[in-house]
User: What shape does this take?
Amino acid sequence: MLRRRNEGSRTMSIDLTEETITAEVQKTFDGAADERTREIFVSLVQHLHDFAREVRLTSEEWFTAVDFLERVGRISSPTRQEFVLLSDILGVSVLVDQINHDGGAGSATDSTLLGPFYVDGRPRVENGSDISGGVPGMPLFFTGRVVDSTGLPVSGADVDTWHSDGEGFYDVQQADKLHGELAMRALLHTDLDGWFSFRSIVPRYYPVPTDGPCGEIIRAAGRSPMRPEHLHFRFRAAGCEPLVTMLFRGDDPYLEQDAVFGAKRSLVADFADHEAGETAPDGTPMTEPFQTVEWTFTLASARR
Ligand code: BEZ
Ligand code: FE
Assistant: This one.
């Protein structure tokens, strides 16, 4: 193998082979200022090269993959997060979440993936507010409490919630209909006893977006694109680990076949049915059927 000196101190190689190229690429990270950056790229190169060797990847297949990633990038925007969706449908989002929340947190509420529909800029509202944004649907009253690992209330916690409408669509998927307004999402804060509450509409199971490049993978695999019905939550509070989670309903037809692998039995809540004529938790006499959900979220103590 011939070698020459680079402008820097690194020795470059030419005439690399299928066997020698991996180590040669890995060596280019020797000078990384950050050791973790070096570790990650050396391993990434190893696995990527091994993958290409293992499947005997053709040039055409690699160009197809590069074109795919380019299209994932082109369709992406702050409200169309196709890279997040790619990570989700390949199970990477849940894998990384599991690696980092391995159950060592004791009694803490289980976490799950964030998904592509969390957006910044959601309205901050008072407890008890109607966050449906006027989207029609069966009323849902949610009452939540946030406690720490010792069971004490966590006051002043940031609580983000977001969910689909009764047809399975998020606000950002119907920007034309909603004139670009955000709906069915809000930022709330827990009160002195850790409570928070809101009124909205009952969501529904839905397919993950399949009209972009990720849909090609789902169709090629003959997979179901469906997610079980759920409410999303994200908690941030001083002295506690952040928590990203969801609540599911137990009788959902897709609970055991979530397209993004995020459903957990520990996160199944009772979406209780109520008849017209009953009183809502906020004291409203209801003239139509509605549902209520109550849940206590436990946050782990902040890691030192
Ligand atoms: C969601 O729950 O919003 C979601 C998660 C992953 C992919 C698509 C949607
Ligand atoms: Fe969702």
In short: Residues 35-55 form the longest helix (21 residues). The CA atoms of residues 228 and 254 lie 5 Å apart.
